[in-house]
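User: Here's a chain of 154 residues. Predict its fold as tokens.
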Amino acid sequence: MTAAFTCSKTFSGYPCCHRQWRHQGHCRFVHGYSRSFTCWFHATALDANGFVVDFSSLQDLETQLAHQFDHTFLVNADDPLLGQWQALHSQGALDLRVMDNVGMEASAQLVWGWANVLLQERDGGRSCCWKVEARENERNGACFEARPAWFSAA
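Assistant: Prediction complete.
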């Protein structure tokens, strides 16, 4: 096995609510969690500071996370009540975010994509995010794991 440097950063404290309207059980009802996300990073070489990723340089990612998940209501784009959610949003009753899928698996993939756009633009392919865990609470979470096509750890 080839030696490699990796690191991880957890972003937490994003209270939001959602519903899985297709679910036959209680998940079809609006319910909330305080979401958290752990991102794992890999680099072909350490930066000038000796870091895989400088955690203080991830403010843009943290801003995206807060915008999407902090005190927001997440709804699937195909939710049959979308018009009503949009009306409540326009009335100031909720802060709506429409997503393809509000589930934790899809949320992990979304954050993975955001992290890799940031890293590719900033580091030019030196580092990548290879895994994101999205947690809705201490008991339930989901991961998305992939190496971006542009990243080569050779």
